[in-house]
Amino acid sequence: MLQEESDLALIIAQIVQKLKGSNLYAQLERQAWASLQRPEIKLESLKEDIKEFFKISGWEKKLQNAVYSELSVFPLPSHPAAPPEHLKEPLVYMRKAQGSWEKRILKSLNSMCTELSIPLARKRPVGEQKELLNKWNEMGTDEPDLSLFRPVYAPKDFLEVLINLRNPNYENGDSHSFRTHLGLIQVPLKVKDIPELKEFFVELGLTAGQLGVDDSTQVPPELFENEHVRIGQKVLSEQDSAAAQQYIRQGSPTALRAELWALILNISSQPEDILYYEQLKTNVIQHDLLVDSLIYKDVKLTASNDDYYFVFEDYLYQVLLCFSRDTSVLGHFAYSSASPPKSYIRGKLGLEEYAVFYPPNGVIPFHGFSMYVAPLCFLYHEPSKLYQIFREMYVRFFFRLHSISSHPSGIVSLCLLFETLLQTYLPQLFYHLREIGAQPLRISFKWMVRAFSGYLATDQLLLLWDRILGYNSLEILAVLAAAVFAFRAVNLMEVTSLAAAEAVLADLSTLKVMPLLQIFLFATVT
Amino acid sequence: MLSLTDKHLLSIYSVPEGTTNQGRESKQPLPQIVEVQSADTQPAAVGQAPPGSVPAWGRVSSEGTCFLVRSPRALTTPASTWTHSELPSCTSLKLCFSFRMSVQTIRNVFSVETGYRLSDDQIVNHFPNHYELTRKDLMVKNIKRYRKELEKEGSPLAEKDESGKYLYLDFVPITYMLPADYNLFVEEFRKSPSSTWIMKPCGKAQGKGIFLINKLSQIKKWSRDSKTSSFMTQSTKEAYVISLYINNPLLIGGRKFDLRLYVLVSTYRPLRCYMYKLGFCRFCTVKYTPSTSELDNMFVHLTNVAIQKHGEDYNHIHGGKWAVNNLRLYLESTRGREVTGKLFDEIHWVIVQSLKAVAPVMNNDKHCFECYGYDIIIDDKLKPWLIEVNASPSLTSSTANDRILKYNLINDTLNIAVPNGEIPDCKWNKSPPKEVLGNYEILYDEELAQGDGADRELRSRPGQSLGPRGGRSRDSGRTVLTTWK
Question: Where in the numbering of this chain does the Rab-GAP TBC domain appear (chain A) (predicted)?
Fold first, then answer.
């Protein structure tokens, strides 16, 4: 009991610490001062009256949302004496692996830099700045020569690293048991099995209404949809983050989705935020980074050619270029296993005073990175809001998909979860695919790394991401991947090569995610 | 049901009556689909070839119209040189399908002198006087006439607002015929001299000959009493229409786009039409700007793929085409469900009204059906405008997805027009069962609308008829803006 209390006290202290530096604190203070003018505030009962005032005026709700947001993002402290690295990643071997992966990426970036003799960063001449400012809304037509640039890495390179992960403390003897060598991931992490998943995803059960299932044309709207929409509107008018998160587990109506996501992510477009975005834009205009070319290349290779997202190409540049200059993103490295790469001013290698983070936000984009932003363009057409939402989605979820960690939502756990589900519930299929040299993870890895963006139809993808937000977890990606394999099992049993298996699973654009998930979780005889 | 793939060619069996030149001298029954034949294997008969018939081939022109050809030689030679000739053996062909009629030849079929008499088991894919709808000047004329008629009847549809604009029937931008209405146009132009107008030749397609003007001097040629008119006779001066340019189109990603929707009409009286669910938006490759300095830049203003594909930034993978479902999702997410539903309802309304406008003058031959390509532009107030209707919408494909879409379009069209893949009987009631609709949805069925009337409980969700969920059949007109008759 005492332990819990002291844990709670620690958490509260941490959250208060964090919020004290935020804009909300300043606003609350201002509001409190202003409220002294009000007649109902009396000196004798000052504290209670102000609290009451906050409750009525909705400021308490805002504070509640902020606290909830912090709770969702920040991991609970394990032990007061735990060093900060443990907050990032408790397992040493994972930390080491992430460290060496980062070294490799940076090496690759530096060598490209030297090869092409392009500086990592340079200040733009005034003429170029003006030109870029004019072209800000149509950077897609700019088309610099990108032929020499290569993406720093692609998901499959990352997969190879994950396959080679080993826990040095885990020795299961010389006999390589059947199970351990069945899948690609060889680290012993705890993942949920189907009964646990059923409990975790209880709102997706067959007895609860779902958007994505119960809003289809054959179902009369009175049965579920109308009521659900009504509740959604109520949640929005109450502006309650936690309620929104609970609500969205059953899917979000299209018209309410943009606001619901903003509420859950605790994003409100304040003038300061717009100003901040403009500041980032100025940074982009003034300095040119090597990373920019990587971003251009990535957008041109992926989103520009995508049937759903090509329309929003210009937005992607506006978001990603600013993103790479945003130093506030560095904050997420406190709870991510990754660390931002450091770069040194020319000639001062190794001297810490001359070290800067490169890129400024510490995130080096890889092939397909822009696909994290693309689906959001369907919801937000105002660049600064789009930017904020993306940034928050990144520091809450997406960063876990390309860093090595033991977190249950980290990509390693997702891969292991996927493989375990497949092995346990579709052993025949798994064995068959393995025999023909088509390890299932090799096919599904790219889906999970991109959170299925670019593989599913957009409306289905948004329904999936609703659930990611609702459950504050990426595990659903692994479950969906397994469900897709289960769905196409019959065809997959017939194939005889990796290429053929890839072909069977090449086109996911016709899939409906919610029925698939429901069948896999709740309707399959285990 | 016929399913077309790239490897099949449709063999059209026709019954020759000797070697008459273009069939002028004899009343020659027209060919119909009876067989699907793979280019490299033996024919797999689907229907019965009429006795004494010989195979022939169809060819798709670059405009997407299909001609029947009688020899492989004709696949690559101009139409004017074709004659009926002996048929050598089959050569392989990429794609073709069965329609005998192109917009050019349909005239021959139904003209009084050449007078083909279509027999009961022959149907063709154009209405004889489709140009009433598909020529830009006639379409506007018919709509204007329709509106006046409704006004005279005192119909609530023809209601006007305070400024004299039709409340429900204002879906075509102000248009004048040139040179006929030149003076009327000048009057209108002078009312708002900073407006931009768009000049379109009446009979052309693919954006050919279109240009924008914002000064009267740019169209001096068409002035009736211009000096130049004495140099050319009226007949050689090509007929143009001039419409108020919609300079505030809805922009997505900063680019202008228009909607291409396919509508199949199986009969005009009673009106029965179907809307293809998989329409698409055609985007310009260049950012939109209403600036007058860019009026000449066709890449900014004209969305025709024929034009855009020559642009620098044209992408061959998606071709600038965006599915209508994406548009719907985007608008619902960013603008809300009600206004999106209202927009799509209005689009359906516009299409049905345009068909109703020409229905009285259309030659409702029972042998005919037609698939139109509707071009619609949405302005930034989410109001749809009917730009034009195409009788021969392009059936060639610019991208892989496009190919699939167009094949399915043809397949579904044929399934509705020629049910069961059997030899058709034009006397049938033209009411196909629901299962064959494929990706089509009933847009308007006059018989059903009149039959059920007020008793019908309209269960369809507002504005949901053609959403990403698809498949909702709008049986009769819904009470959208006013009662549908």
Answer: 251-472
Closest approach of A317 to chain B, Cα-based (Å):
12
**Under DSSP, is residue A13 helix (H, G, I), strand (E, B) or coil?**
helix
Instruction: Report the residue of chain B nearest A309, measured CA to CA.
Output: B322
Q: State the residue for tokens 């099949």.
A: B8
In three-state form (DSSP H/G/I as H, E/B as E, the rest C), the secondary structure along B230-253 is HCCCCCCCCCEEEEECCCCECEEC
Q: What is the CA radius of gyration of chain B?
A: 23
Q: How far apart are alpha carbons A35 and A78 in whole angstroms?
A: 40
Q: What is the DSSP code string of B25-71?
A: SS-PPPPEEEEEEETTS--EESSPPPTT-EEEEEEE-TTS-EEEESS
Return d(Cα B130, Cα B101) in angstroms, integer.
13
Concatenate the DSSP letters of all residues of A59-92 into one string: HHHHHHHHHHHHHHHSPPPS-TT--HHHHH-S-H
Distances (CA, A) of A226 to A204, A210, A221, B453: 18, 12, 6, 27
Residue A514: Cβ within 10 Å count: 23
What is the structure's pLDDT at B424? Answer: 65
CA distance A50 to chain B (A): 37
Mean pLDDT of B222-239: 54
What was the pLDDT predicted at B67? 40
- What pLDDT is attached to residue A126? 87
Confidence of residue B6 (pLDDT cuts 50, 70, 90): very low
**Predicted confidence band of residue B328 (pLDDT cuts 50, 70, 90):** very high
Q: What is the pTM of this model?
A: 0.82
Q: What is the pLDDT of residue B115?
A: 56
- Least Cα separation, residue B101 to chain A (angstroms): 34
Q: Which of A210, A226, A254 to mutate to test the interface with B (most CBs of B within 10 A)?
A: A254
Burial of residue A433, with CB atoms counted within 10 A of its CB: 0-12 exposed, 13-18 middle, 19 or more buried: buried
Residue of A308, A325, A419 lying closest to A374 (CA atoms): A308
Query: CA-nearest residue of chain A to B312?
Result: A141
In this predicted model, what pLDDT tens digit does every residue of A78-136 receive, in sequence order? 666 777 777 788 888 899 999 999 999 888 888 888 888 887 788 888 888 888 888 88
Residues 6+ away with beta carbon under 8 Å from B226: B220
Q: Facing residues of B386 across strands? A: B376
Tell me the pLDDT tens digit for each residue of B131-155.
888 888 889 899 999 988 988 888 8
For the record, the structure tokens of B331 come out as 């608008």
